[in-house]
Amino acid sequence: MLQREKDWVSKIQMMQLQSTDPYLDDFYYQNYFEKLEKLSATEELQGDGPKKERTKLITPQVAKLEHAYKPVQFEGSLGKLTVSSVNNPRKMIDAVVTSRTEDDETKEKQVRDKRRKTLVIIEKTYSLLLDVEDYERRYLLSLEEERPALTEERKHKICSMYDNLRGKLPGQERPSDDHFVQIMCIRKGKRMVARILPFLSTEQAADILMTTARNLPFLIKKDAQDEVLPCLLSPFSLLLYHLPSVTVTSLLQQLMNLPQSAAAPAPSNPHLTAVLQNKFGLSLLLVILSRGEDLQNSDPTTEATENHQWTEVMFMATRELLRIPQAALAKPISIPTNLVSLFSRYVDRQKLNLLETKLQLVQGIR
Question: For the whole model, what pTM was predicted?
Answer without folding.
Answer: 0.66
